[in-house]
Specification:
The protein has one domain: Four Helix Bundle (Hemerythrin (Met), subunit A). The chain is built from four helices and no strands.
Length: 128
């Protein structure tokens, strides 16, 4: 039961991170009075890409992690979920910085891609 609660708590963290990134876009839109697009505003364009990249890179991995969890791979799903969350936070932080330190982005991408590649392998092994 505790492992299931941990998994759901991690999923809640993904949802909260998405909301934080979305609120950041909304905050900049309100401050700059920009309703649609970015109108050439670099800070808004960066914030929009950070949020979009989070969704683009997280969604498929999260779906696979849920399948793994549902197939009984709860411990592995928890470990991979934590790694994915760490990777996405790291990437979002690195991408959010105006003077980027690409080490955060690269580390975040490597962790995220690693989880995205590893999860279906564990899912396959769980089903065999």
């Amino acid at each position: 039961m505790i492992m299931e609660l941990i998994f759901f708590a991690i999923m809640l963290c993904f949802a909260m991170l998405h909301v934080v990134l979305a609120v950041n876009v909304i905050r900049i839109r309100r401050r700059q009075k920009i309703a649609i697009g970015d109108q050439g505003h670099h800070e808004l364009a960066r914030a929009m890409r950070v949020q979009a990249n989070f969704l683009e890179q997280s969604l498929f991995a999260i779906v696979m992690l849920i399948f793994l969890f549902m197939q009984g791979g709860v411990l592995v799903a928890n470990i991979l979920s934590v790694l994915l969350l760490m990777g996405r936070v790291c990437h979002a932080y690195g991408m959010s910085q105006t003077s980027e330190d690409f080490r955060f982005r690269v580390a975040g991408m490597m962790i995220s891609f690693g989880v995205t590649i590893t999860t279906p392998i564990f899912l396959f092994l769980q089903l065999v």
